[in-house]
Design a protein that fits this description.
- The chain has about 190 residues and is α/β, with parallel strands linked by helices.
- The chain has a single domain (about 5-140), classed as Rossmann fold, CATH 3.40.50.300.
- Helix content is about 30%, strand content about 25%.
- The chain is built from 5 helices and 10 strands; from the N terminus they run βαββββαβαβαβββα.
- The chain has helices at about 15-30, 70-80, 95-105, 125-135, 185-190; strands spanning about 5-10, 30-40, 50, 55-60, 60, 80-85, 110-115, 135-140, 155, 180.
- The protein has a 6-stranded parallel β-sheet, sandwiched between helices.
- Helix 3 (about 95-105) links the parallel strand 6 (about 80-85) and strand 7 (about 110-115).
């Protein structure tokens, strides 16, 4: 039975690594996975999902205006897709998450979404909020704060390492920009920001 999954975490928890391993497992069993990632995230190159540990694969990309139900219907019909894997799922629109739910229900394809739950201000991303509402199953991918506790938050830092309180919700970056923290240390960083 197909389901909509949401694997969520903060930065640097290994979400892309888990996605790439799961896609590899499908291929190893003779099944075809379909990989998607946000079109404007070029950190790993255009149309590529990559992990900090050095593995990566090409992927198709999505933009906010894309009809993902139509695309998935075509892919499943033409290529016999066994499972869909979506990286950077926080960048999905509300409508696109509903399209994914429809694809699970009407096409019968499992869809595994991987993304951030909250932004640097502690606010849900729109795609994540809708995934939290609609996903059949949710799994937290864990990482740790510098204190050893589970990291659930992320701060965005300026070039001097100072935590930023304001700015656009989306700013593509990695370890040079973002640090994952437990809630207590996030609160301390934001109060000092």
């Amino acid at each position: 039975m197909a389901k909509l999954y949401f694997h969520y975490s903060t930065m640097n928890a290994g979400k892309s690594t888990v996605l790439l391993q799961a896609a590899h497992n499908y291929r190893e069993r003779g099944m075809v996975p379909y990989l998607l990632t946000a079109g404007f995230d070029h950190r790993a190159g255009d149309g590529r999902i990559a992990s900090r540990i050095g593995i990566g694969e090409p992927a198709d990309t999505f933009a906010p205006e894309d009809d993902l139900f139509a695309r998935l219907h075509e892919q499943v019909t033409r290529n016999k897709i066994a499972c869909v894997f979506i990286d950077e799922a926080q960048f999905l629109t509300d409508a696109q998450v509903w399209q994914l739910a429809r694809a699970v229900d009407d096409i019968g394809v499992p869809i595994m979404c991987f993304g951030l739950r909250v932004d640097f201000r502690g606010q849900l991303f729109p795609g994540s909020a809708t995934l939290l509402a609609l996903a059949d199953e949710m799994r937290e991918v864990r990482t740790i704060c510098h204190c050893g506790k589970k990291a659930t938050m992320v701060v965005r830092q300026d070039e001097n390492g100072k935590a930023l309180r304001d700015g656009a919700q989306v700013q593509i970056g990695g370890n040079e920009t973002y640090v994952s923290l437990c809630r207590r240390h996030w609160r301390a960083a934001m109060e000092d920001g």
